[in-house]
């Protein structure tokens, strides 16, 4: 065992790996001063902020609200819903998306705004969705073949991304299941 460990350390320090190529991936984020957000986005942000009031987050005290604008101009909101069995809870983004897809299964989503506050204050920096939510949002974008603008609210600045793919480079999707 000790020999193996020493051998591994030797290899780690002495074997040079040849790099075939270095890939970089660029994402585009439009950064706005929050008070200067265009009206169409500001309205959705206000809905997301209001929705944080409906959050049930006694464990994290991290209250998140999401507001979706659909192709039929309906706005659907969701908030995070925690559970004493922690993994049973669900994020605001997925609550809103699944709710929208359940109510209007044939209607694409155009945009989603997300806001969060904790200890009575909205976050200064833009809130970003977790990995699981990014995957769910991507599914919707692919399902309806329509970009979903992502609006990430912060008190000082707000980020806008043109689509979910910007949030999830090297994503896994339906196409990966086809041989
Ligand atoms: Zn999430």
Could you explain the architecture of this structure?
The structure is a single chain. By secondary structure, the protein is of the alpha+beta class. It has four helices and seven strands. Helix 3 packs parallel to helix 4 (131-144). The radius of gyration is 20 Å and the shape is globular. 30% of the residues are buried. The model has no long low-confidence stretch (mean pLDDT 93). Zinc ion binds next to helix 4. Residues 91, 93, 129-130, 132-133 line the site of zinc ion (ZN).
In short:
The protein is an alpha+beta fold and 179 residues long. It has 4 helices and 7 strands, in the order αβαββαββαββ. Strands 1, 2, 3, 4, 5, 6 and 7 form a 7-stranded mixed β-sheet that branches.
Low-pLDDT residue spans: none
Question: What's the CATH first level?
Answer: Alpha Beta
H and E order: HEHEEHEEHEE
In DSSP terms, counting alpha (H) and pi (I) runs of 4 or more, how many helices? 4
Rg calc: 20 Å
The main pleated sheet reads as:
7 strands, mixed
- Number of structurally distinct domains: 1
Residues in helix, %: 25-40%
Question: Termini distance?
Answer: 42 Å
CATH fold topology:
Cytidine Deaminase, domain 2
**Which small-molecule ligands are present, each listed once?**
zinc ion
Shape call: globular
β-strand percent reads 15-25%
The overall pLDDT, averaged over residues, is 93
Question: How many β-strand stretches?
Answer: 7
Q: From the 3D coordinates, which CATH architecture would you assign?
A: 3-Layer(aba) Sandwich
């Amino acid at each position: 065992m000790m020999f193996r460990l020493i051998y591994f350390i030797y290899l780690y320090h002495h074997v040079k790996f040849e790099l075939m190529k270095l890939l970089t991936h660029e994402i585009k984020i439009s950064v706005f001063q929050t008070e200067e957000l265009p009206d169409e986005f500001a309205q959705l942000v206000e809905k997301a902020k209001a929705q944080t009031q409906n959050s049930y987050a006694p464990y994290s005290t991290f209250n998140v609200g999401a507001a979706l604008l659909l192709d039929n101009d309906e706005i659907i909101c969701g908030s995070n819903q925690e559970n004493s069995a922690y993994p049973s809870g669900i994020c605001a983004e997925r609550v809103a998306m699944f709710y929208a897809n359940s109510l209007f299964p044939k209607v694409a989503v155009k945009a989603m705004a997300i806001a969060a506050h904790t200890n009575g204050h909205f976050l200064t920096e833009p809130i970003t969705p977790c990995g699981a939510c990014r995957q769910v949002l991507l599914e919707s974008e692919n399902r309806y073949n329509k970009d979903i603008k992502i609006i990430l609210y912060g008190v000082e600045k707000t980020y806008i991304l043109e689509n979910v793919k910007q949030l999830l480079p090297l994503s896994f999707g339906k196409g990966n299941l086809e041989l």
